[in-house]
């Protein structure tokens, strides 16, 4: 590596994933896969001097096919599916803030100022945030936060579905579990997720766009 990149043998450095997981001899085979993005740093917690980009390749989860008509079904029953779509986005914030020690803040903003861009819905919370790996897995269409296993690192790791109670901040409001991505693309044409893990200095941003697809 020193020879290929022209690094002095005396210089100390580390190689990490975008989630700042250090690559070692013990975890190399399970961590370094084709297409994975790696950082070459002087230390694991080195401040990044500029933004970096990571390409995400994934196939749609099979539930995309088997549950793709869910919104159409509820709409055909005479119900307005828009509240269900908003509930999905808010539900993500409820579970993300479920273990906050202090105040849980969840904001819903409807943006219609054309000077600031196209109309948008913004859901903002002060939850624990997601690593790049968790954000990557959020992008896997129809991969439920309750069914992620194996190589998938959940964006709600350790989250336990609360005991059913009247709808409140301590309950799940996602009645149908249709998934954040499907909810986003029912409402609009693109999704931008910006997240900062509570124990990290890095800010991760994911953009899913119908136009790009």
Automatic annotation (TrEMBL):
Gene3D superfamilies from the entry? Answer: Histidine kinase-like ATPase, C-terminal domain (3.30.565.10)
Instruction: Write out the GO cellular component annotations.
Output: Barr body
What is an example of a Pfam family matching this protein? HATPase_c_3
- Top-rank lineage group of the source organism: Eukaryota
* Biological processes per GO annotation: double-strand break repair
InterPro entries xref list:
HATPase_C_sf, SMCHD1
The name this protein goes by in its record:
Structural maintenance of chromosomes flexible hinge domain containing 1
